[in-house]
Amino acid sequence: DKSRKRKKKEKNGWVIKIPPPPPANQTKRFCTNCGQPHTGKYDLCYKCHLEKNNTTVSLSTKTNTANSTTETNQKKCKVCALPTNSKFDICFKCYSKKQTDAPLNTKDTKKPFIKACFNDTDFRKFNQANIQAEDGHYVRSRAEVIIDNWLFRNNYRHIYEKRVIMESDLDAVVICDFYLPDNDIYLEFWGLENDPKYEERKAQKIKMYNENKLARIDLYATDVDRPDDLLAIKIKKKVKELENAK
Questions:
Q1: For 159, phi and psi rounded to 5 degrees?
Q2: Which residues are CB-neighbours of 152 under 8 A, at least 6 positions away?
Q3: What are 218's strand-pairing partners?
Q4: What is the pTM of this model?
Q5: Which DSSP string corresponds to 12-62?
Q6: Please, which residues have CB within 8 angstroms of residue 30's CB and are 6 or more apart in sequence?
Q7: 3-class SS at 164?
Q8: What are phi and psi for residue 80, nearest 5 degrees?
Q9: Burial zone of 228 (CB within 10 Å; 0-12 exposed, 13-18 middle, 19+ buried)
Q10: pLDDT digits over 120-163, tens only?
Q11: Strand, coil or helix: what is 188?
């Protein structure tokens, strides 16, 4: 029973195997230089072998040589003469100071000035012409319906949203609200108030009308409220002025 248990233990690795002792025939080797015993294959021991080949170097000599090599290989800045680890001849502090003291190159920083031409179609994209007047024109507001109907009833031939060619700026896209071809008069209805963008557009448009000497009538909400009185008076006055100028 004991032998069977021992075999099972050996199979499962439970038994700790002790290495056998060294053979009695093995002879000790002595160093030929110092006479001390050693286990190497050669006649000299390890210490005597190092001394013979002069390979023993102290730690102090190693550190001194390392410092000397780093000092010789380390670069120095040309400006401040301090050692630097950078690839360039100037250290980072001197380089940054040079960049801040250097004047800016204004030729490269300036961008070309591009003059934006006046475009009246951008403002009209937000308001669609979906209100029909009596003559069939589709306009964009109730006030323009009143103006269009009054012109139609009083036998004024008119064109809705005609492009105005400005001789001073041919690239500008200027569109009038109404145009009377028989009298060569442009009608502009200014409906918005207290809107800085609209006021800027209005000023630019009036300036172009004046520069090109085009006949213009400015209409406001009060004129539209009383078209038979105020609107009629403004149009008839402008027609008389043009006839007298001829």
A1: -120, 130
A2: 133, 134, 135, 158
A3: 188
A4: 0.52
A5: HT-SPPPPPPPPTTPPPEE-TTT--EE-SSSSS-HHHHHHHHT----HHHH
A6: 36, 37, 38
A7: strand
A8: -100, -5
A9: exposed
A10: 777 777 778 899 999 999 999 999 999 999 999 999 999 999 99
A11: strand
Q: Please tell me the distance from the alpha carbon of residue 215 to that of residue 199, in angstroms, as a whole number.
A: 20
Token output for 11? 């199979």
> Cα separation of 69 and 64, whole Å?
9
Residue with tokens 């690795």: 13
Nearest C-alpha neighbor of 217 from the set 190, 244, 245: 190
What is the distance between the alpha carbons of residues 97 and 211, in angstroms, rounded to a whole number? 54
Gyration radius of the chain over CA positions: 52
User: CB-hemisphere CA count at 13 Å for 200?
Assistant: 6
Q: Look up tokens 């009695």; give the residue.
A: 24
Judged on CB neighbours under 10 Å (0-12, 13-18, 19+), 45 is buried
